[in-house]
Amino acid sequence: MTHRTEDDGEIVSRTALLDRGLSDGQIRRARERGELVALLPGLYLRGEGPVRLDPASRHRARLTTVIACLAGEPVVSHVSAAIVHGLPFGHSEIPPLHVTRWEPGRARPGAPVRVHRAALEPAEVVDLGGVRVTSPERTVVDCALSLPFDHAVVVADAALRRGLVTRRSLQDQLARRDRVPGRRRAGAVLAFADPRSRGPGESFSRVLLHRWGFAVADLAVPVPDQRGRPVGVFAFRFAGHRVVGEFLEQAPDSSAGTGSGPEETELAVRAAGWRLVRWSWPELRSPEPWVHRLRLELARVAP
Question: Is the pTM of this model over 0.90?
Answer without folding.
Answer: no
